[in-house]
Design a protein that fits this description.
With 381 residues, the chain is an alpha/beta fold. It is 47% helix and 18% strand. Bound molecules: adenosine-5'-diphosphate and zinc ion.
Length: 381
């Protein structure tokens, strides 16, 4: 891995969780990690346990183990990679391993990996001996700009994704963009959906830079991590309990989740969210909030990121199935769907009462899916 700048950026957020971004943090010759950990942990750790998956262990396990061992006795637990590990059963296995290692309440869990490791590990940290401290070390783009920030932890249940869990903030989030050098392009795209989302919901300048960016270029891509992490941290710390503002993070997610469910989760979250923003952006336009020129700009940017294969996999999913899942979304109340929608690129719509959530008539749903499909077909020709 080539060394670039090692300037650290600290993001303050009122949820008293510190976010540090530094290119090459984990790769620097003179370990920066011990010093950083001392500054994040006010009570000395009795031991560390790295929780990771087997693929990330192969790539970075030894290196991170060596860094942490300079401070305290360190163990490592690796789960199989992928969403299928995000279960109560896996959680029980990890808890049993912690007990076997004799980890006490001053032990600190280091969650090294993508969203799966972060969600499951955060949940384990929240319930092991009624809670131990943990630190997020996200290694995927999606985790670095989204899931590692905000303290949402949990696992999937038979009756739905993320149905068991708790909000509990980590002591800190250490983001090293250098981890992304080994991340497959498919996984990079998984984070791009949220990047576009941050542009639309809160930062027109970021949106404009994404229009010019080449996502195959490492430096183009990684320069967006800091602004995106900042947006997420600001929104979450202003409204940790999702009473109003935090709901803008759900833009594109009603239709996006519906598409994922209708495709039996064979379509990645990033692609689903891009699709969801196409439909929800159209709904915003129909309701008279979102100007046509912004709808078109959003469509052009989304199309820039989708490959022909992505388009084909989305277009194979039946419209009725997507509509069915959107209609049964848990955010719906008494005959209305609730969504946060854009007013223009960089700003979300608010009702007269100041609510970011607007009720959507059900009859706009199917036409919005038809619009999104047409937008995709249009980009194929
Ligand atoms: P997400 O962060 O998108 O929720 P996961 O936690 O499922 O995703 O991780 C996606 C996949 O990427 C997993 O197979 C994981 O092992 C792998 N992975 C995570 N970080 C890296 C990395 N830095 N380099 C290569 N592969 C990685
Ligand atoms: Zn998302």
């Amino acid at each position: 891995v080539q060394r670039l700048s090692t300037r650290n950026v600290k993001i303050k957020s009122s949820c008293n969780c510190k976010i540090v971004i530094g290119e090459g943090l984990f790769f620097a010759k003179k370990g920066k990690i011990p010093r950083l950990l001392h500054s994040l942990l006010d009570r000395k750790p009795s031991s560390f346990v790295i929780i990771t998956d087997t693929s990330v262990r192969k790539l970075y396990g030894t290196r991170v183990l060596r860094e942490l061992s300079r401070i305290a006795e360190t163990h490592l637990i690796a789960i199989p990679p992928g969403e299928r590990s995000k279960t109560m059963e896996m959680c029980m296995k990890v808890l049993a391993d912690l007990a076997k290692f004799g980890i006490d309440r001053d032990g600190v869990l280091i969650l090294l990996g993508g969203g799966v490791v972060g969600d499951l590990g955060g949940f384990v940290a929240s319930i092991y001996k009624r809670g131990v401290r943990y630190i997020q070390v996200p290694t995927t783009l999606l985790a670095q700009i989204d899931s590692s920030i905000g303290g949402k932890t949990g696992v999937d249940a038979k009756w739905g994704k993320n149905q068991i869990g708790i909000i509990n903030q980590p002591e800190g989030v250490l983001i090293d963009p250098a981890f992304l050098r080994t991340l497959p392009h498919k996984e990079i795209l998984n984070g791009i959906g949220e990047m576009v989302k941050y542009g639309v919901i809160s930062d027109a300048k970021l949106f404009g830079e994404l229009e010019k960016a080449d996502i195959h270029s490492y430096s183009d891509l990684t320069k967006f991590i800091e602004p995106c992490a900042r947006i997420k941290a600001r929104i979450v710390s202003e409204d940790p309990g999702e009473e109003n503002l935090r709901s803008i993070l759900n833009y594109g997610h009603t239709l996006g989740h519906a598409l994922e469910a209708a495709a039996n989760y064979s379509i990645s979250h990033g692609i689903a969210i891009l699709y969801g923003m196409l439909s929800e952006g159209w709904i915003a336009q129909k309701l008279g909030f979102f100007p046509t020129k912004d709808v078109q700009r959003q469509q052009a940017l989304i199309n820039k990121f989708l490959t022909r294969d992505d388009l084909a996999s989305v277009l194979r999913v039946r419209l009725e199935k997507i509509a069915h899942y959107a209609l049964t979304d848990k955010k719906n109340v008494s005959g209305k769907m609730m969504m946060s929608l854009p007013q223009k690129i960089g700003k979300m719509h608010q009702t007269k009462e100041g609510d970011f959530k607007t009720s959507i008539p059900f009859n706009l749903l199917k036409p919005s899916i038809v619009y999104a499909n047409r937008a995709l077909i249009g980009s194929l020709s």
